[in-house]
Amino acid sequence: MSLTWEAKATDGYARAGTLKTAHGDVPTPTFMPVGTAATVKGMTADAVRSTGAGIVLGNTYHLMLRPGADKVASFGGLHKLMDWSGPILTDSGGFQVMSLAGLRKLDKDGVTFQSHIDGSKHRLTPEISVQIQHKLDATITMVLDECPPFPVTEEQAQSSMEMSMRWAGLSRDAFVPRDGYGLFGIVQGSVFPDLRRRSIDALMQIGFEGYALGGLAVGEGQEMMFAMIEATWDHMPADKPRYLMGVGTPDDLLGSIARGIDMFDCVMPTRAGRTGRAFTSRGIFNMRNARFADDGRPLDPGCTCLGCQRHVRGYLHHLFRAEEMLGPILLTWHNLTYYQTVVAGARAAILEGRLDSYIAAVRARWAEGDQADG
């Protein structure tokens, strides 16, 4: 039996469920920390687990270049290499390759590109991408697709979407079914609702274990992103997980959960942590700001992360001003914990039929700001 998703409760469009995989069950909605190169930057696997994460993400493009899919396989696959026994989703590499601009050449069968590391030439096709993800032992494999830039004309978006749907079929043919594993299709069509609905129809004819919304959070803005989710929600299978790729801020997550999304990933909490930005229940703080130098309070009272439990804001400020590596580590740890807290709270609220009031309360605390704590 392939990977499955089981609904537990609904609240409006929002859903709480369980993703059942070969590497364990994951409650949804869920946020997946990004471990691009077989590591969530600055975090051990135990640290990632302590945040409440149940599934992480790896990346085909980066891992095929370094250390190489065959080498990962020789080490026992990503799960063993990363010390992560839970599910792993691997992005197909399409987004990264399409971002290479002058270093890649696209054709109807795939893309030829030069490595950003050493300039070496490589080929990525739907079949090759799926084969690499199999070697990585990805619990969830993503089809190879083209993510068009924004803005894009409707004609360009249609051509790109149709090619991605062809690639989706080739990816399905190349995928080797295994108990508890799955292949996700990716909906494309930019900001054109009709194209997105046509994309969903094409993917459903092929048949996948889950469906992702791609090509969003690329500059179109939150309002348009939410509009595209709303335009496609009723056309997506009710018994399959829905994954919004590369999103986003805590507010993006809450708004998308309310619109029926089950799974998310984004580099934002880890990237922000490395640059001194903290996502908290009272809004976003810049820990380099001088106002934190003498602040003896925890970063976010009630947070269970190591930084909040054992250190004060003044110490975190000092670490960043002194350029000590512990600062980014602790803030990454906190941000990932906060993301998991927000999503877990949304799940509990869906199960109890109070999601709207939960979202309103979270947003109200953000609006009150830091002064509400003291």
UniProtKB/TrEMBL annotation:
Report if keyword Metal-binding is assigned. yes
Stretches assigned to the tRNA-guanine(15) transglycosylase-like domain? 12-366
One example GO MF annotation: tRNA-guanosine(34) queuine transglycosylase activity
Q: In which pathway does it act?
A: tRNA modification; tRNA-queuosine biosynthesis
Q: Where does the source fall among the domains of life?
A: Bacteria
- Binding positions (Zn(2+)): C303, C305, C308, H334
Matching SUPFAM superfamilies: tRNA-guanine transglycosylase (SSF51713)
Query: Which BP terms from GO are recorded?
Result: tRNA queuosine(34) biosynthetic process
- Transferase: present as a keyword of the record? yes
Per UniProt, substrate binds at D91, S92, G93, G94, F95, D145, Q188, G215
Q: How is the cofactor bound?
A: Binds 1 zinc ion per subunit.
This protein is called what? Queuine tRNA-ribosyltransferase
